Amino acid sequence: MGNDAQCKVVGEGTIKIKTHDGIVRTLTGVRYVPELKQNLISLATLESHGCRYSTEGGVLKVSKGALVLLKAIRCDSLYVLQGSTVTGSAVVASPNKDNTKLWHMRLGQMSEKGILILKKKGHLGNHYTGNVDFCEHCIFCKQKKVSFSKAIHRTKGTLDYIHSELVSLFVILVE
What we know:
Layout: E1 11-19, E2 24-32, H1 43-48, E3 52-56, E4 59-64, E5 67-75, E6 78-81, E7 83-86, H2 100-106, H3 112-120, H4 136-141, E8 171-173
Parallel strand pairs: 2-8
Antiparallel strand pairs: 1-2, 1-7, 3-4, 4-5, 5-6
């Protein structure tokens, strides 16, 4: 502790955090210390797992590659995470709310036009407004263009050759 006091670790486990962008991230190796009044996340531990962090204008961003994983706002001398702890064993999207952002992310950052086509064909259900809000992930993904060399594909059947977006999973260990 900051005042040289010691607190006992009662247990260790896994928690889920719903972040600023609505994504649920899993933190493993989380220690339960009942004497602490606030939950703390170690930036050094995040860094040791390949994450980097930066601060600007009172906002702390933890990222891995181009993907912003966690965001926090400075409040006095601490940064407060923008998100909440998920309770219960399952996280289910509410069927009554707009699922546009959910489908946008599930379909590999698909454009509004592409989602609208799927909606018209009846593949997305009824809960879609047609507007994808500002998506930070799309901006970061489109910043750098890398050209691919020409290749010869010898495919014979449907789905023999597939292009897809690779998304890295985020699991960290918090000390």
